[in-house]
Amino acid sequence: MLLTQSQRQPYWRTLLILGRVSNLPTVWSNCLAGWLLAEGGTVTRLIQLCVGATFLYLGGMFLNDAFDADFDQQHRQERPIPSGAITLDAVWRWGFILLGAGAAALILLGVKTGLLSVLLLACILAYDATHKLIASAPILMAGCRLLLYLTAASSAAAGITGLSIWSALALAAYIIGLSYLARRESTGGAISLWPCLLLVVPLFLALIVNGRGFERTAMLLCMVFGLWTARCLSHTLLTTKPNPGRAVAGLLAGIVLVDLLAVAGGDTIWITALFLLLFIGALVLQRCVPAT
């Protein structure tokens, strides 16, 4: 159903919705966590990393809608393309421009980072093109986040470390669980238990890694993560009127908590505070722009 001129939202808001910008704090937290796990580096490189990752994410989200145009025309007519808020050709152009800008920014960070960013770009395109066609699409989504983690680590002082790999795998497990729940949001049907179990993999990794050192900090963060995850799942598992959309939105913001677990809050307060600000930022942005 096309909107009339008077009904159309501002063009800038259409772009925000297409880019699902409410999830950007989770992209930045992925970058920060991967960077910290590899001993960090200069702030300039971190900023360049976040800028490149932002462009890749936005480009991927634009192309997600471009590939889904026919599906949205039948099932989600409120989305920008079927509603007439923007043309399909414009979305294709925006998507590829953003992907190109993101890849360029990351390639300039070095050979390893550039190679990983190319793999990340390929994974993004594979997910966008096939996620409505194959049941294993959540694995591709998890692969995108895993490669983002490794890309971030490769740009830092120590490069890709064992802990950054394990943390990337734990995040990937969380994303697989989240993505399968998100598919139920659009297709309906009963919620399986196994995706919910994958959501707690980061918790177990945090407990194992932080058994020594920051015991109190690790335990407190594990409690926060566990309570938040349980709260999100309660919207689908412990109610007579399931609201998977609310659960998925909360779990998307929870990606920041996964990253915070990976660094165990760090050894300084500002690191914990920064992740918590990103978490709050994701929740606030979700009130303005839909996360899915």
Describe this structure as you would to a colleague:
With 292 residues, the protein is an all-alpha fold. The protein has one domain (11-286): Tetracycline Repressor, domain 2, CATH 1.10.357.140. The protein is 75% helix and 0% strand. It contains 15 helices and no strands. The chain has helices at 11-19, 24-37, 43-67, 69-75, 80-83, 88-107, 111-130, 137-154, 162-187, 193-198, 201-209, 215-237, 244-253, 255-263, 269-286.
Tell me the structural class: mainly alpha
Task: Report the C-alpha radius of gyration, rounded.
Answer: 19 Å
- Average pLDDT confidence is 89
CATH topology: Tetracycline Repressor, domain 2
In short:
The protein has 292 residues and is mainly alpha-helical. It has helices at 11-19, 24-37, 43-67, 69-75, 80-83, 88-107, 111-130, 137-154, 162-187, 193-198, 201-209, 215-237, 244-253, 255-263, 269-286.
Question: What is the topological layout?
Answer:
Blueprint: H1 11-19, H2 24-37, H3 43-67, H4 69-75, H5 80-83, H6 88-107, H7 111-130, H8 137-154, H9 162-187, H10 193-198, H11 201-209, H12 215-237, H13 244-253, H14 255-263, H15 269-286
Give a quick set of tags describing it.
15 helices, mainly alpha, Tetracycline Repressor, domain 2, 292 residues, single chain
